[in-house]
Amino acid sequence: MSLSELIACHECDLLTRLPELPPGGCAHCPRCGCLLQRDRPNSIEKTLALSFAGLVLFIAAVSFPFLAMKAGGFEQHSNLLTGVWLLLEQKMVLLAMVVLLTCVLFPLAGILGLLYVLLPLHFGRRLPRAEVVFRLVSHLQPWSMMEVFMLGILVSLVKLGHLAEVIPGISLWAFAVLIFVLAAQAAVLDPHQVWERLEALR
Amino acid sequence: MKAAGMTARRQNLVSCHNCHLLCDAPVPVEKQVACCPRCGSTLHSRKPNSLMRTWALVFAAVILYLPANLLPITITSAIGVTQTDTIISGVIYFLHSGMVPIALVIFIASVFVPLMKLLILIYLLISVQRRSRRRLVDRTRLYRLTELVGRWSMVDVYVVTILVALVKLGAVARVDAGPATPYFAGVVIITMFAAESFDPRLIWDVMEDDE
């Protein structure tokens, strides 16, 4: 039996022979139940389409006003980055960095990284250091927390609702759609297939 | 009890942590690390020093958990009156004003999840060190759960950021981030690293000694 027919479960190390998966089917580890592999048809093309959509929405989300608040004759506009600047002004550099990284830079790096790897792959090529980029993308994934940020927005809106009038901006809608696009992107991406294609092109 | 089964390690194979390529176990050479031939990440059969690292991070998180919950997380000033709120007092405030769903979200994300995560990790660490053979599947599931839900604890950090950014209405009202905020962010980030450094394969390794 050759090694390529076998897979070791990455949660319990059990060696299993990978079955031929039906379209859309998935294989679980017989011992611990961990998901071993899922058949994802046209994974690369679907991920590419969603990454492009994500990039457009990301640009919209950072460039337009996010929320505006009206109370007692004052009006306060803010976009995605003003919160970060205000934290910096209060000398909370660490916190500002955490928010900037997890809500702006990591998601952006994830989208750009996938485009860098997958776009050439679609045309049967690979750019230099594609493995390094794809590895980084998979390491960054748990640290990209836009959907958690969205929950934070909802909580803040309820919190402020009785205090002042809160007006959602264009960027908020772009942001909401972006979260679904990113979730869909994570669901259609098949890392196994990408690694195999990268290896074949070496 | 489940059958021991054949593991990659017993067959002298190593599965890459990142791309899951199955390779022959590298022959150890001093001061050299073996790399996955496909993706280039370092190859090891089990995550190195997994138990020690996880213990250290769990201890650090337990220490930070105290100031994170005892110090104020927001400082609100409205028309000359200043009010400081800890995480718990914020939850109680929401409960009193009838916003039960929000109180639940904050309580689960900021108090319950970090605490459960720490307790689960401590339980997993102790049970692995005591070479427990009980509930292997359930313990693996617990691990999967801690890995999955940890990031949602960040929600309170983001709420504070948004409030600080939005509520800057001159003399009428302003919100500042309290001293607990960096500690709280520290708890969330450190527990995420702790879950990542724990190797669930250690739960199953005890099965190999059966035969």
TrEMBL record, chain A:
UniProt superkingdom: Bacteria
UniProt keyword annotations, A-Z: Membrane, Transmembrane, Transmembrane helix
Keyword Cell membrane included in the entry's annotation: no
InterPro entries according to UniProt: PqiA-like
Membrane-spanning ranges: 48-72, 92-119, 140-158, 170-189
UniProt key word Zinc: no
The protein's name: Paraquat-inducible protein A
TrEMBL record, chain B:
Top-level taxon of origin: Bacteria
Keyword annotations from UniProtKB, A to Z: Cell inner membrane, Cell membrane, Membrane, Transmembrane, Transmembrane helix
Keyword Cell membrane: yes
Location of this chain's protein in the cell: Cell inner membrane
Gene Ontology terms: cellular component: plasma membrane
Transmembrane segments: 55-79, 99-128, 149-171, 177-195
Main location group: membrane
Protein name: Paraquat-inducible membrane protein A
Organism: Geothermobacter hydrogeniphilus
